[in-house]
Structure formats: C-alpha cells, structure tokens
C-alpha cells in the first residue's frame, strides 16, 4: 500500500502524455511552449507526450513491481525511466522551442 502514491502519479503522467501525444500542448507550461510554431505544435506535443508517457510508465511499473517483489534494485527502473523521459523532453525543447526556456 505504500506505493499507491507512486502508482497514481504514474497513471496521471500517462494520461497527460496521451493528451500531449494527441496534439494538445496546453498541459505544457506556457514559457516552455511560447516559441513553438503552430506547424510544429503537433510534433512538439508528440515528443513532450512521449517523454511524459515514458516517465509515467516507469513510475507505474516501479510501483507495481515494488508491491509484488519489494526489492531495492527495482528503483533503478524508475531512475532510468525518468532519465529517458527527461532526455526526450529536453530534445523536444531544443528542437521545437529553440532552447530550454
């Protein structure tokens, strides 16, 4: 039961990622999307959504595996997923927003 919060957060990020992948970038902070052109908005949304989805899936998977196995090395899955998701999001920021901020 102690990993429910991690599971709920992962599910929320998965839903947000799916919303972004469908092209709705309104969930991304205004200052992070201010220089994204209308033509690039769907591609930016897919990239940001993929990063968010990766992070959410790793959180949810870590929570489920911790509930089943209760082993310390499973948190490496969480760290790898968050790092991969952030890498995709930083790539999208540089490519479509011309910088981090």
Describe this structure in words.
This protein has 101 residues and is mainly α. It has helices at residues 4-21, 30-33, 41-69, 75-96. The longest helix is centred in the middle third of the chain and has 29 residues, at 41-69. The model has no long low-confidence stretch (mean pLDDT 89).
Global outline: elongated
Helix/strand order, N-terminal first: HHHH
- The share of residues in extended strands comes to under 5%
Helix content: over 70%
Mean pLDDT: 89
Number of strands: 0
Largest sheet: none
Given helix and strand content, the structural type is: mainly alpha
Uncertain ranges: none
Number of helices: 4
End-to-end Cα distance = 38 Å
Q: From the alpha-carbon coordinates, what is the Rg to the nearest angstrom?
A: 15 Å
Question: What topology emerges from the helices and strands here?
Answer:
Blueprint: H1 4-21, H2 30-33, H3 41-69, H4 75-96
Keywords:
single chain; 101 residues; mainly alpha; 4 helices; elongated
Summarize the structure.
The protein is an all-alpha fold and 101 residues long. It has 4 helices and no strands. The mean pLDDT is 89.
